[in-house]
Write a structure and sequence with these properties.
Layout (H helix, E strand, L loop, with lengths): L3 E6 L6 E6 L5 E4 L2 H6 L3 E5 L4 E5 L3 E4 L11 E6 L5 E8 L4 E7 L7 H5 L3 E4 L17
Parallel strand pairs: 3-10
Antiparallel strand pairs: 1-2, 2-5, 4-9, 6-7, 7-8, 8-9
The structure holds zinc ion.
The site of zinc ion has 10 residues, from loops.
């Protein structure tokens, strides 16, 4: 498979974006304290040129520093009007520098497309990123 361009938005449309994603590469569900509360489900657009913000009128941002870390790794965005989470951005060498973690529920996909995306369950709470958490169904 290869990457193609998908569009996405919040509910009210005050945030609109497009991202080049290979959804067959899979997506992540994580049990860290943020992802668990947000029920986050992310697909990754690796590299600065794989993401375009088309309308950022509604963007609000949230950052947090995981315990034991010096600084936040991700800047999460959500819409200040409708509250829908849309994407996060970060910078990691292993992901090609600047990357965007795209909220899969915010993408304009059919049920069939969404259901076909492989999901990796990640034990971020205990920083064991290559392990499946004990209760993935609870994430
Ligand atoms: Zn909105």
């Amino acid at each position: 498979m290869s990457a193609r361009t998908y569009t996405g938005s919040c509910h009210c449309g005050a945030i609109r974006f497009e991202a080049d994603l290979d959804l067959a590469e899979g997506s992540n569900r994580c049990n860290c304290s943020y992802c668990a509360k947000a029920r986050a489900w992310f697909a990754f657009a690796k590299g600065p040129d794989r993401f375009r913000l088309l309308d950022g009128t509604g963007v609000s941002e949230y950052r947090w520093t995981p315990p034991g870390d010096a600084e936040p790794h991700l800047t999460f965005t959500f819409c200040r009007t409708c509250g829908v989470r849309t994407f996060a951005r970060g910078n990691l060498e292993s992901l090609g520098g600047t990357f965007h973690a795209i909220s899969v529920p915010a993408l304009d996909l059919s049920d069939e497309q969404r259901a076909a995306i492989p999901v990796r369950y990640i034990n971020g709470r205990e920083r064991r990123y290559d392990e499946t958490p004990a209760h993935p169904e609870a994430i």
